Amino acid sequence: MKQAIVTGATGSIGTELVHNLLRKGVRVCAILREGSAHNSRLPEHPLLKKIYCPLQDLSALQNADGESYDVFYHLAWDGISGPTRQELQRQTENIRYALDAVELAKRFGCHTFIGAGSQAEYGRVEGELRPDTPAFPENGYGIAKLCAGQMCRERARQLGMKFMWVRIVSVYGPYDGPQSMISSTIKKLLAGERAPFTKGEQLWDYLYSADAAEAFYQIGERGKDGKIYVLGSGTARPLAEYIRLIGRTCGAEDKIDLGAVPYAERQVMCLKADISDLQKDTGWTPETKFEDGMKLIVKKYQQFGDK
Question: Which domains does the chain have, with CATH numbers?
Answer without folding.
Answer: 3-172+206-232 (3.40.50.720), 181-203+236-272+291-304 (3.90.25)
